[in-house]
From TrEMBL:
Protein name: Sensor histidine kinase YesM
Membrane topology: Multi-pass membrane protein
Gene Ontology cellular component list: plasma membrane
Chain ranges passing through the membrane: 21-44, 310-331
PANTHER family: SENSOR HISTIDINE KINASE YPDA
GO MF term set: phosphorelay sensor kinase activity
Organism expressing this protein natively: Paenibacillus montaniterrae
PROSITE patterns: HAMP (PS50885)
């Protein structure tokens, strides 16, 4: 019982979808578009966040490497200063001559060491605070700084020297406890034969010497940058807030990780993803120092969260737009089907025939199947009829193409010849009749045959012979045609109708002498032949010229015209059909200044390119 009710409920809910293909199409398109859009958005957001973190890590690793290299170079400069003193002849003499010198010789050696330490101080630059040299055998401490220059005799070795001996170290770097803005770089003086420590050289240097280099790590940010010695003690912090105890404890653990990595591989830099921060570190190759930069994870996540936020906004907008577009497309796609289905419901006049079984669908498609199956035979019949009518129409258009030329030409020409018979001598009349006969012979050839420029010009010459006889000395004709172009081909009856229209529309309405100039030349591309027919007739105003150019631009649908408007549209149409849209007719004219018609055809025969 329950299953029957559930089945009935489902049937009721699905009934609207069964009856309407539009509803099914819209829901299907929405379901196809929304999940991929959401998945792509989430994937792009996740990848963007990961890419942002990777970019921050790789950028900081690269910056740490170059900053560490520059830092090593600065410490190497200080080391070089110490080494230059260690190998100085005065230093060697002072260390080796103890016990075998007179007082004057001892004084001379001390003066040499004082000069040496003075030179070290001034050659180190503005960041040098002071220089100490201690020689244990003589218990002498040489000191030079901005406050004093002294040579002191000590009763006991300084604590620094004792530290070097006890820890068996050759150098120590530590921050001055009294003034943390400077540090001491101490290197032992060792006996060459047995490496026994004889004293030390100490440089007091301001940490600000390193600030310009360390600032390379904090371009546009203010994260903590640290220098830590080999025991994990903080030597210097150039920027950023003081680290929390938890972060500092993890920073000290970097020393252990560094020692393990140093055993496995050389170089650096490295990074450690600690709790709450990324710790980047670079072990100095010059001294037992480690350069450390701490970037809170909140900083990295802040950039990625901003990217994720914009990504989610774009994703939501894309999902909404996709849903709207899917619904709109579904509506538009199904609209013709629904309209056709509605219109088909009123079609009851079709003949019933024996048909194949059709589907049992009850939606719009099912209705279309029923109606369209009944209409199939009659639609085929109508299609055949329409197709035959269209073929007949096209054939009639082609036949009319030639038919519109011949009657127009004959009417105008016979009118001129008729008037000349009564006013001229028999020889002149015979010449005109001969010209007319040649023109008829040319016109009555195969209508779709291409002609050469030479035959077209002869046809024009026959026409002009009649016109010159008709108008006497009033007409002046100039033909300037290059013999190289005479074998180029063009549709027959191209030039003569243009010349005829020049008389009818341009010259006859004009008072005074008439001039007609026909010439040929290459276009700029050398592949196109331009034939110019120019008159000095009444011309056209800008409105008439624009109308004519518009008719020429749309001449493909004007295969023929009636009356006197045979010429340009008809000729342009035939040239386009024969050679393509690249070729055709151009018209230039101004009122009372004549008209020029430019015919463009291929310089070489290209055949039918339609």
């Amino acid at each position: 019982m329950f299953r029957q009710r559930l089945h009935s409920l489902l049937q009721t809910l699905m009934l609207p979808f069964k009856r309407s293909i539009r509803t099914r199409l819209i829901i299907t398109m929405v379901l196809l578009v929304i999940p991929p859009t959401i998945a792509v958005t989430l994937l792009a957001t996740t990848n963007s966040r990961q890419a942002m973190e990777d970019q921050v890590i790789q950028t900081n690793l690269s910056n740490m490497k170059w900053t560490g290299i520059y830092l090593d170079q600065q410490f190497d400069q200080l080391n070089s200063l110490i080494y230059s003193a260690l190998i100085h002849p005065d230093m060697s003499a002072y260390l080796s001559n103890y016990g075998n010198q007179s007082l004057s010789e001892q004084y001379s050696d001390q003066r040499n060491i004082s000069n040496l330490i003075t030179n070290m101080y001034y050659s180190a630059g503005n960041y040098m605070v002071g220089v100490d040299i201690y020689v244990d055998d003589r218990k002498k401490l040489f000191r030079y700084n901005s406050y004093e220059a002294s040579v002191n005799s000590l009763t006991a070795a300084p604590e620094v020297f004792s530290q070097l001996v006890e820890q068996n170290k050759d150098f120590i770097v530590h921050t001055d406890e009294e003034d943390r803005s400077k540090f001491r770089m101490i290197r032992s003086i060792n006996r060459f034969e047995n490496r026994q420590k004889q004293g030390y050289i100490s440089l007091d240097v301001r940490w600000s010497m390193m600030d310009q280099t360390l600032d390379l790590l904090n371009q546009g940010s203010n994260h903590p940058i640290l220098l830590v010695d080999g025991s994990g003690e903080l030597l210097y912090q150039s920027s950023g807030e003081q680290l929390s105890a938890d972060i500092w404890r993890q920073v000290q653990q970097v020393q252990q990780a560094q020692q393990q990595q140093a055993q496995q591989s050389a170089g650096g830099p490295y990074y450690l993803a600690a709790d709450g921060a990324y710790i980047f570190y670079y072990p100095s190759s010059a001294l037992e120092l480690t350069l450390i930069k701490v970037i809170p994870k909140s900083f990295v996540h802040q950039s990625s969260i901003q990217t994720m936020k914009y990504g989610l906004i774009v994703g939501i907008v894309s999902a909404v737009l996709s849903m709207l577009i899917a619904a709109f497309l579904g509506w538009q796609i199904s609209k013709p089907i629904v309209q056709l289905a509605h219109s088909m419901r009123g079609l009851s006049f079709m003949r019933r025939q024996e048909q194949q079984p059709i589907s049992s669908r009850i939606d719009e498609i099912g209705l279309l199947e029923v109606k369209l199956h009944n209409m199939q035979n009659r639609i085929q019949e109508h299609i055949l009829n329409e197709y035959q009518m269209e073929l007949d129409k096209k054939n009639a258009e082609l036949r009319a193409l030639q038919a519109q030329i011949n009657p127009h030409f004959m009417q105008n020409t016979m009118q001129m010849i008729g008037s000349m018979i009564f006013s001229s001598s028999p020889e002149q009349s015979y010449q005109m009749i001969r010209s007319l006969s040649d023109m008829f012979r040319y016109v009555l050839r195969e209508p779709d045959e291409l002609a050469t420029v030479e035959t077209e010009l002869k046809h024009v010459q026959n026409y002009l012979t009649i016109q010159e006889q008709r108008f006497g000395g009033r007409l002046k004709v100039n033909m300037d045609c290059d013999e190289r172009f005479l074998q180029a081909r063009l549709p027959k009856l191209t030039l003569q109708p243009i010349v005829e229209n020049a008389f009818f529309h341009g010259l006859e309405p004009k008072q005074g002498d008439w001039q007609l100039h026909i010439s040929t030349q290459f276009a700029a591309d050398r592949d196109t032949l331009c034939m110019s027919i120019r008159d000095n007739g009444v011309g056209m105003n800008s409105r008439q010229l624009a109308q004519l150019r518009a008719r020429l631009a749309f001449n493909e649908k004007v295969l023929w015209t009636s009356g006197k408007q045979i010429g340009l549209a008809n000729i342009a149409s035939r040239i386009h059909i024969q050679f393509g849209r690249r070729y055709g007719i151009e018209v230039n004219s101004s009122e009372q200044n004549g008209t020029e018609v430019m015919v463009k055809i291929p310089a070489a025969d290209k055949g039918d390119v339609q």
